[in-house]
Amino acid sequence: MPTEFAYLFDPLCGWCYGAAPVVHQLAQRPGVQITLHPTGLFSGSGRTMDAQFAAYAWSNDQRIQQLTGQAFSDAYRAQVLNRPGSAFDSTATTWALTAVGLEDPSAELPVLEQLQQARYLHGQDTCTSEAVATLLRTWGHAQAAQRLLDPDEALVLAVRSRTQKARQLLNARRTDGVPALVVRDSAGWRLLPRTLLYGTANQLLAQATAA
User: Fold this and answer.
1) SS3 category, 184
2) Cβ within 8 Å of residue 19, ≥6 positions away
3) What domains can you pick out in the chain, each with its CATH number?
4) Which of 44, 75, 108, 127 has a CA between 20 and 30 Å from the CA of residue 205?
5) What crossing angle do the helices spanning 51-68 and 14-28 adopt, rounded to 10°?
6) What is the pLDDT of residues 151-169, one digit of tens each?
7) ω before 179 within 30° of 0 (cis)?
8) Is the dihedral of CA 161, 184, 10, 167 positive or negative?
9) pLDDT tens, 28-50?
10) Is the Cβ–Cβ distance between 120 and 71 less than 8 Å?
């Protein structure tokens, strides 16, 4: 039987970006199945950038970089954080990932990684549907881009269903933070320590499969 994981995250979560290398390595392992569950943590947040939030985010990002080695570029700081009044909202990225997943589930994790890199490395806007749709087209997902801009009922229902399931998984594990990784074993879903997402895939798998 494959080892089955549920990965709970938000596309705008810096700590989720920090966990990206281990999640990527895990997904490449034979016999491992990972299902993505965006939680909608920052979807519809209503938050906009200001100097105080930018300073807080950058300070937090530096902690993530020190712990994980994931880079947060000067372009991100200048073009994303230092844009007073710009949105901080993961609705567009959550819907975009769902649209991609409806077309090709295997493409969803690579697109998540591309969205994270677009923001944190290249300083690109990932908080508006228009900007995200442009990125999707660049990456060869024109149909998902159009669906993002003009959502159909299937997309609306899929977003609603998967965010509800993600929150149920979080609530059942008595945690509201992301990233979170749960593994299915004989007793059901089991929450793994978050620190494993900042180690190695070998360490994570060893604990996930321990009796």
Assistant:
1) strand
2) 9, 68, 179, 197, 198
3) 3-208 (3.40.30.10)
4) 108
5) 30
6) 999 999 999 999 999 999 8
7) yes
8) positive
9) 999 999 999 999 999 998 899 99
10) yes
- How far, in Å, CA of 118 to CA of 116, rounded? 5
Burial class (CB in 10 A: 0-12, 13-18, 19+), 92: buried
The owner of tokens 């229902």 is 157
Q: Among 93, 102, 96, 113, which Cα is nearest to 23's?
A: 113
Q: Look at the chain and count its residues.
A: 211
In the chain the first and final C-alpha atoms are separated, in Å, by 15
Per DSSP, the three-state class of 191 is strand
Quote the tokens at residue 30.
């034979």
What distances in angstroms separate CA 182 from CA 9, 87, 114, 190, one per listed residue?
12, 30, 23, 5
Tokens of 35: 């299902």
For residue 131, give both structure tokens.
């900007």
Six-digit token string for 51: 């100097």
